Amino acid sequence: MSSPTIVGRLNGPAAVVQRPALSPTALALRRFRAHRLAIFGTALLLLIVGVTISAPFIAPYDPIAVDLSATRRPPSTAHILGTDSTGRDVLSRLMHAAQVSLAVGLSAALLQTGVGLSLGLLAGYYRGWVDSVISRVTEIVLSYPLLIVIIVIVAILGPGQNSIILGIGLFGWPTACRIVRGLVFSLREQDFVLAARCIGVSDRRLISRHLLPLVVGPLTVTATFAVAYAVLLEASLSFLGLGIRPPRPSWGNMLNEAQSLPILESMPWLWLPPGAAIALTVLAINFVGDGLRDAVDPRQRAIR
Amino acid sequence: MRRIALAVPVLFGITVLTFVLVRMTPGDPVLYLVDPAAMSGAPEEYIAARRSELGLDKPTPVQYAVWIRELGQGNLGYSFVNRRPVTKMIAERVEPTVRLMGTALLFALLIGIPTGVVAALRQYSLIDYVVAVLSLTVISTPAFFLALGAIYVFSLRLDLTPIGGMATIGRPADLVDALRHLILPAGILGLSLTGPIVRYTRASVLEVLSQEYLSTARAKGLRERVVIVRHALPNALIPIISVVGVMIPLLFGGSVIVEQIFSWPGMGQLILAAIGQRDYPVLMGITMVVAILVLACSVLTDIAYTLVDPRIRLG
Fold first, then answer.
1. What's the pLDDT at A55?
2. Considering CB atoms only, which of B202, B275, B290 is closest to A155?
3. Higher pLDDT, B311 or A193
4. B132 with B206: CB under 8 angstroms?
5. Which residue of A9, A149, B83, B275 is surrounded by the most CB atoms within 10 Å?
6. Does A239 touch chain B (CB under 8 A)?
7. Interchain pair A228, B140: CB under 8 A
8. Taking the C-alpha atoms of B215, B220, B226 and B228 in order, what is their torsion angle to the nearest 10 degrees?
9. How would residue B197 be classed by pLDDT, with cut points 50, 70 and 90?
């Protein structure tokens, strides 16, 4: 029945497996599991999500409870990471802050990937003037640095997470669009597209049922990196005072105070933990992105 | 030539989009464009007269034309806050930002390209692994956190560099002082670009290494060193030119943060001051200038690419 198939070098020497050929998805899953850093990233990310979901129950203090009798206290047994300028518990704020970062990161990435996917499908499938117009629009949008465009949107709508999400969604899509466009360009030349056309499949159905599933893999990779970048942007804007407004905690606005030299010099508990939290979260997402990329397209693999 | 022709509709699009964004910001457009010195204490009738004179009571497309005409004469409007022409305010900020970004880019290329090449030549070695993790760590760490860390270590603890500014106030300009002020902000901004450059260089070198013409070169009996340095690297490094084009908007975004932290008197600092004071003409003026500069850099890098690599035809 099933002949032995060689499944390549997954993890060490070539493995000869006695089973039918695996589906592309199953193969990709295997490659992802063999990617050590990606597994590490996934575990770290699950931990961060777990902490932030359970923050209301496990955080030692209310993250916005002000205690003016205990401001800027160094770490102690009562406050493991000390307190900030208004006596709020740093650890509790740190645990709650992940919510905002992940929410902004996910929704912004979802929005920009959706826009990029739709425009990319149209440009790649219809080519001609549709493609020309979309390509020019892509270039226009790419001329505005994301950070600056979000500052402009903050000027129009005011600071907050919606301005950030909207800015990234409306101006961050060119990467996804170009990837989808490129893929569809080559896919539509293949025989299965011709075959589908011959049996009278409509454009709409051809795009959604035959082409879309084939771009989902590579698109997931760009979407993952987009989440990482959106988390960084949210942190930067909150740091500049243009993102999430206090008292609501965000890792970026927790670092805002560290612009003052006395805090930077002698109160490291106020700025080291949120900075490290951002870096670790983004790193974990990027590890996952790397793992997904190698799983979807093994030719580009960065590292074993 | 074709590349420049393609940039014309893009430039037009940038002006339209910026105009739309300008109109969405609060504030009376007539206050944007007319020299406030002529208007202070002026009666309502005067303002109304100027409004109709400029065509700002006409339909939006006409207003766009007015705006473009003023733009062509170098009028980006007047600051709401200090009443100076926006063009002048931006002009004096360009040099510091270009100095900062240029040094940062140079730094990133000088560190990033050799690191990427070494990682590719030693693929899957310990060096490659360390480089991969380090470059991803640098990509993942926010620039402002790196900047704060750098100030903490180099300025506060070791007292090697100033904590900000472009030169020591009250001292005659000298090169050493300028470099001491430049090194931290440019280094941090450069570091934030080094990660992507390393990753891209590595991928590009690996791609070329797998090609057959290298086997041909080896079969001719060339030494491995010659094969790599003379045959592989030139082709592998050409695509880096296009990466530089992609980096330019990131540089502008990053310089906003770095200039703020290091009190560097460039466009980034000006844009943050503008949003803080709701000085919309300045904010929109910088946005416009930056978008045009990014477009110009993208056209230039594309042209450079075709000059270096005749196989590429831009469509």
1. 81
2. B275
3. A193
4. no
5. A149
6. yes
7. yes
8. -10
9. very high
Residue of A nearest to B296 (CA): A143
The ipTM estimated for the assembled molecules is 0.86
Number of residues in chain A = 304
Q: Which pLDDT tens digit goes with each residue over A250-273?
A: 998 888 877 777 777 778 888 888
Distance, in Å, from the CA atom of B283 to the CA atom of B279, rounded to the nearest integer, reads: 6
- DSSP letters, B237-268, are HTTHHHHHHHHHHHHHHHHHHHHHHTT--SHH
Q: How many CB atoms lie within 10 A of CB B300?
A: 15
Nearest CA in chain B to A156: B25
Contact A144, A265 (CB under 8 A): no
Q: Tell if the CB–CB gap between B132 and A136 is shorter than 8 Å.
A: no
Please give the average per-residue pLDDT across B37-54, as a whole number: 70
**Short-list A221, A154, A213, A205, CA closest to A187:** A213
Cis-peptide into A247, omega within 30 deg: yes
pLDDT over 90 at B116, yes or no:
yes
Task: List the one residue out of B105, B233, B255, B230 whose CA is nearest residue B166.
Answer: B255
Residues B308, B313, B315, CA angle at the centre, nearest 5°?
140
Closest Cα of chain A to B149: distance in Å?
A: 9
CB contact under 8 A, B140 and A279: yes
Cβ separation of A148 and B152 shorter than 8 Å? no
CA distance, residue B27 to nearest chain A CA (Å) = 11
Q: Which amino acid is at B300?
A: L
The helix or strand, by DSSP H or E, that contains position B276, with its residue range, turns out to be helix B267-276
CB contacts, 8 Å: B142 with chain A = 232, 235-236, 239, 252, 275, 278-279, 282
Among left, alpha and beta (phi > 0; psi -120 to 50; other), residue B77 is left
Output DSSP code: residue A17.
E
Tokens of B88: 């002048």
Q: Residue A146 and residue B132: Cβ atoms within 8 Å? A: no
Instruction: Count CB atoms within 10 A of the CB of residue B74.
Output: 11
- b or e along A84-104 (b: 16 or more beta carbons within 10 Å of the residue's beta carbon)? beebbbbbbbbbbbbbbbbeb
- What pLDDT shows up at residue A298? 61
Q: What average pLDDT does range A67-93 have in this prediction?
A: 78
- Decide: A105 and A230 in contact? Cβ < 8 Å: yes
